[in-house]
Amino acid sequence: MTTHLTDESFPSTLAQPESALISELFTLRDYLRWVSSEFYLAGLHYGHGTQSPWDEAVALCLGALHLPWNVDPAVLDARLLPVERERIIRLARERVTTRRPLPYLLGEAFFAGYPFNVDERVLIPRSPMAELIEDGFAAWFPEEPPARVLDLCTGSGCIGIATALVLPTCEVALADISQDALAVARQNITRHDVGDRVRAVASDVFDGLEGQRFDLIVSNPPYVDERDLATMPAEFRHEPSLALGAGSDGLDIVRRILREARQHLTEEGWLIVEVGNSDRHVEAAFPEVPFIWLELERGGQGVFALSAAELDAHAASFA
Questions:
Q1: DSSP secondary structure of 14-25
Q2: Averaged pLDDT for residues 160-189
Q3: Three-state DSSP class for residue 225
Q4: End-to-end alpha-carbon separation of the chain, Å?
Q5: Of the given ranges (97-111, 171-185, 295-309), which has the lowest mean pLDDT?
Q6: Cα–Cα distance measured from residue 20 to residue 189, given in angstroms and rounded to the nearest whole number
Q7: pLDDT value at position 304?
């Protein structure tokens, strides 16, 4: 008979003095094992770039030491300096005690392969649209890339900036109602040196974009319904509620986007929007609209695409 050890068999050591931990843990391998065990015991929620205690431990340790994810495995057995060990211990404790998502602790998140500054003023990048960006939106622009792109409800600017980095000829507008979010987006514009092609614009949905048209509008707007917002794990409560909740069915902003997007698209333009698990609310609200729900190789749900022509054809439904 196989015996499974209970959590009580291995109590947490997080409360031990740093000096005691440092005297027993020396190498990166030591800290990966220890942090992973502590995260397992703490019952943390994952969903901001990692999916398990081990993945989160790897991200924390490598991030704390400023090491790339594909570091040479020989580094695992390198002894860490005391100051490095202290940093890992402090980060692990804060992750467990505050439930702050790891990217906020590190001040950085990766999206579509690129690093972005993040803090509590913006959502942590995790949109499944990353794979569409990496493919250059080729399914909708097979012959030549879009010349002008709008990243609506931009937050950190990750979607629009990553698009600009993948498509070096396009111009991108990053629009958000939050001045705090735009401040972070401007940091990322500077970080990636794309200020000649990417600009940040204050806009309540389309209200600050009068007269402007784009070949592609992409948006990861607030779409969490009231029920989901009330029951989200503690980690998500560190993110700005303005960027998450959008009314009883999560569609307050999505309805505005569908109603107004056509005025800002070129004749051959496309609208791509992420609504996550509020896709069921979209289908219920607009049953006559033939939304194209994208199948994503790396997972994720609730991303639809509509052409300018389809927005015209169903304008009455969105009015």
A1: TTS-HHHHHTT-
A2: 98
A3: coil
A4: 65
A5: 295-309
A6: 43
A7: 96
